[in-house]
Amino acid sequence: MTGISSTNYILAAATCATVSAVVLKLSGSSNPLSYITSFKYVSDAAQILQEGYAKYKGAPFKVPTLNRWIVVLGRQHLEDIKKSTDDELSLIEAANDSAKVDYLIGPEINSNPCHISVARTHLTRNLGLYYPDIKDEVHAAFEELLDLKDNAWKSVPAVETVREIVCRTSNGVFVGLPLCRDHDWIDLNSRFAVDVATDANILNMFLVPLVSKKLPNTAAGIARAMKHLDPIVKKRLRCTGEREDDWSDKPNDILQWLIDEKQESSTGQLALRVLTVNFASIHSTTNTFTQALYNLAAYPQYVTVGPLREEVDTIIREHGWTKEVIALMRKVDSFLAETQRLEGVLTSCKRKAMKDLTLSDGTFVPKGTHLCVPTCVVHRDSAVYDNPDVFNPFRFSQLSDDEGASARRQMVGITQDYFPFGFGKHACPGRFLAGNELKTMLAYILMSYDVKFEDRVSRPTSIHWDLNVIADPTVRVVFRKRTCN
């Protein structure tokens, strides 16, 4: 079981916030209000975004963060983002400015983002082929980590447990067995995203690229990954050269797809790609499912009896576990989509203007401007959703019924009303894998377990820090083998 303490998150974030505030103050900002607002933005970004959205009625407005101003666009600008080219509005450069990928992971990740094209092409196309492995790893991980006895309840830390299950399942697709079950590999990838975020905050504060050479956490993670992958990469390269035409048991995972691209072949290069894919996926999927697990525990009527469990029981008992069957679970899909609507990202569609440009409504955007869309505000807008602050688990399946089972209302669908995975050509290429993992995990819990909170009845409030919505990592959830049928 991995053990990233919530104290580490809070301490690192508080330290970064405090030092950043001092840096801003010493920088001689002529606007003390922006200094105060930037500090407030760290802990109350959702309220600031809501106030700006209401005040400017969807027109662009800007907010000061700890190290830069960000221009917040309205949902009507999503088409501008969709139609823009990468040399006008760049997702990669916006992400690099925030996460300092060039310094911490390597400049080749952005200069040649081949892992994105590989994910976009192969993850979706091969989903039916590797779905049995997803299902098997989900089932095995739950059984091993919970290790339930008879009819007894067992308490587990929710975030840590979910993180390990997600990490094992995702790495079954990223690097395959047996590495996806290796405890050190799981621990490494669980920690790597936190290490990169912490080190990136330090670089953002001091603006000294050379500091990156002094930061030990990210470099240590890369070294650990190379140690794990080196024998695997060497064996696969040998098999690719010797048995390419008759390799009947050729692995079907991202590592092999990257090798087959023949753009990179060293262990170091491939390790950086695999770490980046993990960095981009593990913690977001973990957070989404933990939020959904909290909703299950908070609303037991959907677990014990009722349409959610009935849907899973009926479909699985009639058809078994397949990718096509998971696609039939519209209420499960809706439960997860509603969870993402209320407890998903604060902003999305982050871009950096690479040149001066003018939006369709005449808004002028200077070169270098950072842009985003306030996803959380749109998702809670009463003009978009009825009773937007109420958790309605079947909201999206009911909308699909009204539209004739529209795929646009699925949790991986993207519209101007719902876009937790981004919008346009840069929408998350791994969302179909994530969607199948999440639905399989939720369906397996409903089929196999009863669940409740250890010491509470109501749902825990999410932690808001900067642009992150974090499931409370201190909460424990109690499982037992399912008793009601």
TrEMBL record:
MF terms (GO), sorted A to Z? heme binding; iron ion binding; monooxygenase activity; oxidoreductase activity, acting on paired donors, with incorporation or reduction of molecular oxygen
Gene3D superfamilies with a match to the protein in the record: Cytochrome P450
Q: Which UniProt keywords apply?
A: Heme, Iron, Metal-binding, Monooxygenase, Oxidoreductase
Matching entries from PROSITE patterns are given as: CYTOCHROME_P450
- Naturally occurring in which organism (per UniProt): Pisolithus microcarpus 441
The organism's taxonomic lineage, starting at the top: Eukaryota, Fungi, Dikarya, Basidiomycota, Agaricomycotina
> Which amino acids does the record list as binding heme?
C428
In terms of InterPro entries, this protein maps to: Cyt_P450, Cyt_P450_CS, Cyt_P450_E_grp-IV, Cyt_P450_sf
**Name of the protein in its database record:** Cytochrome P450
Cofactor(s) named in the record: heme
The entry's family comment says:
Belongs to the cytochrome P450 family.
PANTHER family, from UniProt? Answer: CYTOCHROME P450
